[in-house]
Hints:
The complex is a heterodimer.
Chain A: H1 8-12, H2 17-27, H3 33-42, H4 47-56, E1 75-80, H5 95-104, E2 109-111, E3 117-119, E4 122-127, E5 133-138, H6 152-163, H7 172-175, E6 184-188, E7 191-195, H8 203-206, H9 225-228, E8 235-241, E9 245-250, E10 263-268, H10 272-280, E11 286-290, H11 296-299, E12 304-309, E13 317-319, H12 329-338, H13 341-348, E14 353-355, H14 379-388, E15 395-402, H15 407-418, E16 423-430, H16 432-436, H17 445-448, E17 451-453, H18 463-469, H19 484-495, H20 499-516, E18 519-520, E19 523-525, E20 527-532, E21 535-536, E22 539-540, E23 546-547, E24 552-553
Parallel strand pairs in A: 1-10, 1-11, 15-16, 15-17
Antiparallel strand pairs in A: 2-3, 4-5, 5-7, 6-7, 8-9, 9-10, 11-20, 12-20, 13-17, 13-18, 14-19, 21-24, 22-23
Chain B: H1 2-14, H2 21-26, H3 32-42, H4 48-60, H5 74-109, H6 114-128, H7 131-145, H8 161-195, H9 198-205, H10 210-239, H11 242-247, H12 253-262, H13 266-294, H14 296-304
Helix pairs in contact in B: 1-13, 5-6, 5-8, 5-10, 5-13, 6-8, 7-8, 8-10, 9-10, 10-13, 12-13, 13-14
Amino acid sequence: MTRAITTLDELRSGLTPLENHLIDVFVDGRVSRRELLRHGSLLGLSLPFLGRVALATGFGAAPTAARAVAQPGATIRVACYPPSTAVDPVKGSNAPLYLMIQQVGEYLCIDGPDLLPKPCLAKSWKPNEDGTIWTFALRKGVKFHSGGEMKADDVVATFDRLTDPKNSSGALSAFKGILQKGGARKVDDYTVEFHLDSPNGNFPYLVSSDTPNAIILPASYSGNFEETWDGTGPFKIDKYTRNVGASFVRNDNYWGAQALPARTEFTFFADIQPQIVALKAGQVDIINTVSALAGVALLDDPTVDVMSLHSVAHQPVNMRCDSEFFKDPRVRQAVALCLDREKLTKGLLRGRGVIGNDSPFASIYPSMDPTVPQRNQDISKAKELMKAAGMEKGFQVTLTTMQYLEIPAYAQLIQSWVKAIGIDLKLEIMDRASFYGSLVLGKSPYLDSAMSISDFGHRGVPNVYLTSSLMSSGPWNPAHFKNTEFDTLANSYIAALDLDAQRAAAGKIQRLLLQETPVLYGYFYDKLTVVKRGIAGVQPTGMMQLFLQNAGKA
Amino acid sequence: MTLFLLSLLVFFAGQVLPGDVGRTILGPFADHDAVNEVNHQLGVDRPLLVQYGTWIWHFIQGDMGESYIYRVHVAPLVLQALCHSLKLSALAFVLVVPLSILGGLLAALNVNRPIDRIISIAGVSMTALPEFVTGIVLILLFGVWLRWLPISAAWPDGAGLLVQVYYLILPAMPLVLVLFGYIARMARAGMIEALDSDYTRTAVLKGLPWREVIWRHVLRNALLPTITVIASQTGYLIGGLVVVETLFRYQGIGSLIFNAAKSKDFPMLEACVLTIGLIYAVATLVADLLYSLLNPRIRIRNAND
């Protein structure tokens, strides 16, 4: 029989200085229980252990694995978009494809709705002292659907495949500068080390469901996923028909708790309106993803539940710092002060989002510094800034963007707001492919325009937003923002292993970005999943994935 | 020659579409080198004439090539989609042709009376309504509120012919509505002209029963222009149903063309467009043959020539 309560000293024994530091700041009250769970998970401490720490310090019971109050054996029917390419976990790069591979495949860890990295195929992980080597202990007894046991060789092969430039992997840009081919090394059959190019405090997110290509495939995988669908997950493929749908059945040899549904069916629709109609007609139970604007008819529908998951997905407004209009940071600040962020979230997003403060540090990130003042609408101050910058007469500029989700409506709102400071904004709204173009300077309206609005999906940590779109060397830096102080701060944030150091760096970054304002972060929009009343246990993620193993009809 | 010109037109017009294949496959934020590598592997970084020449050389030898996006042979996909489109268009034809001819006949026999006005105005109104409007209304009516018909045309595996027809009724209805007004109007005009003609008057004065006059003399002559109209709609019914196919999740050749154009999947696009072109050519030929079969004057003139 185990003791229900353990003393804190007993729990501390055997922990690294970094882990003990986390407990110290938790006891001091500098981090919340949620942050303890999140950052402790990141450092490789198990959730039951962290729960015991919280219990020992009087912060409530240990977390328990949630299981739906649902009947087993159901068939769960999902409406979603079709994968736009062949289903290949290595090359593929679209959300519907990720949804498909995640039904049969699994990651080393999962970045769930609470942004906690949870063990999955890895049961634990540890960084070395400077965060350049991360060691993952693999779960034993995990079987691929084809019968073989998942071992370190499969993990190493998976990451070698994703990081090999010859394979043109969809995850190559995520691993660039962090992990190269050969960086994943087998220690023994159940232990893998990742040798990184530079220190990284958030590396577990990179091998989690946050990098949707990173499902663990057998070492023998030869690119024929649509034939094999070989993974380790709780469901096995039943049938996949291109552009029509897919069905999966319960994997009776699953290493974990058996999935509740006997079967899941995914029906592909090219647009959202037919998905809504199918839900209304009772032909599907779930719509995986809907935008607030498109799903407005469902938000007040008593026959459905709209699951609103806070995410860090956002639509940045980029202002080119090297353009004649926006080279002065005071002009950029003035534009930022025109935004009525409350109205944006309440009106445009129908309350399904949180306001932004002109940095990618959303309030749901534990590392975000909450002491940085929130920027609000202030037209008189904006006018003063325009005058100080010698732009009191205003100017005419084109805002280029794409037809995607709420963006055109967002552009129109900005257009109306900046009129107050004399800016005559012309809108150029194009299709998505034209907008991004070839993603090189001179061939991409996204990178070339003086002002643009793009869309960034959710990430469990802000690293990619900092490195790719704000750093001087970032490959997608539409603001052309080049600031050595920012680059140094971003690098120190990425390398920081403890939450205090991350928060300190984040605070400096947030303040610097408020001062410089190369990009407006007006809001972070929720990921909305619509579920018919009577269906329980559905678990979506901000990355558009959908975990159905606990789903059932109540 | 027509098909060759069509293939040239599609290939070179397709080049102005935005985006590239590699980025479509790897996503908008993919690594630039990775995108170039995919484009190289697929051969789309070669000069346009080389790409076209290679493709047409294989096509002439019966190889439609491999889809850039799905990485499978194009021919089975096109064939399957064509089968689907033929089923839907066949059902639409079976429903719309007798209905619209009957409508035209009724209107012509009651010229300027209420029944004529109702058929004419309703027909023109329905033709003017886009398929996505009528489609959504029909889905809401029969699929959501009454729940009589499935809202998706994707029938279950192993479904028999009757089940397939059941799944295709709703998608066929917007097509019937669009075509009804057009064909009925042509049938009406032809009927009015035939009813006014000397040979009809002669037949009536000969004392033939009215039903026989209509059946043997009026209809046979009145339907000649209608047949041309019906034939001209064949290509549209088989290859132009992008909206209906998207709305009802039907995997016909129209949606295949649409997806191929969006992703610059050139082998798929060419194969689909040439297939449709071939169908247009065959439909026109069949219309000519039918015309000459039904109109003895054409046969006699040809024989005299």
